[in-house]
Amino acid sequence: MPAWEKNIRKVVPYTPGEQPKERDMIKLNTNENPYPPAPGVERVLRECNADALRLYPDPKITDLVQAIAGFYGLSEEQVFVGVGSDDVLAMAFMTFFNSDRPILFPDITYSFYDVWADLLKIPYERPALDDRFHIRTEDYLRPNGGVIFPNPNAPTGVLMPLCEVEKIVEGNPEVVVIVDEAYIDFGGESALPLIERYDNLLVVQTFSKSRSMAGMRIGFAMGNARLIRYLNDVKYSFNSYTLNRVAIEAGTEAVKDRAYFEETCRRIIRTREWTKEELRRLGFTFEDSMANFVFASHKTVPAAELFEALRKAHIYVRYFPKGRTHNHLRITVGTDHEMQALMDFLKEYLSEKQKESGKD
Ligand code: PMP
Question: Which of 14, 93, 112 to mutate to test the pocket of ligand 1 (most atoms within 8 A of CB)?
Fold first, then answer.
């Protein structure tokens, strides 16, 4: 080992889902939206003025902050924007989780949380979800350095009712509670109204799922003006020009089109409910999901086997082989056509398996 190596920061990084380059694949592995962004976004890209790129973007991201504030009925001082919610969450970890006490998040959850905590040397504890993959509210009502959880949770899709979220926020007045609502637009009830009553609550959302813009990288946080000021102080101490000019403009257009956003979410919810019925019929079990994915386990065929078989058929889903999730597949809700193709494959594969086991 070279001498310099002993002093460097060593981390075990987060593993993002695969982005295969195949042409005819069915990609259900990273919870992207199967529909294009709002039509206004394409217009922005078409009319893009390359000359403007000589200039730095607006460090305050004013247009987009105003658009988001308008959409949700907030003031500009209550909104913070970043490069995807990953960026917003990383900033929030840096800003708000600064105690000697451990922060709390579930044992099964978004696998970036422990990576940020390790990177930033934030102590943490991971209370276990119950047997049905539900968060136990009481686990979060003890001394801690901060709380974060996604709602709905990922990769389980399980939604915590708003009254339970409120119990956690109310029970933790001495720390900041972050609710990561990456998937809230697919039928969940947002904690956003609670920010008016609880100044320790930060609600984080993204354009990557319900607004079909994972490739543009836009995320945002909403909370009390004081919290947002602290977040901005850290942002300006780290990287003041986060969003590029095109992202600011395209994001602003996307927010303006409420009708398109609502219709897209409705379509995904409809397809998700159909997907659940079909999966049940094929012998899968799962907790009810309120996200744009279903986290399912088959009664007889191991998830690892199904994952490989699907992959060979160019159908990509996500598999987390370690721990309690080792027998589940996380299946993103695609178009009706894609989900039908998935079901056709599974039906065929599972009936072949059944025939084989009948022969034994
Ligand atoms: N939170 C959760 C729970 C997620 O699943 C994801 C998606 N990987 C993110 C945050 C980050 O999404 P993005 O950075 O694309 O906004």
Answer: 112
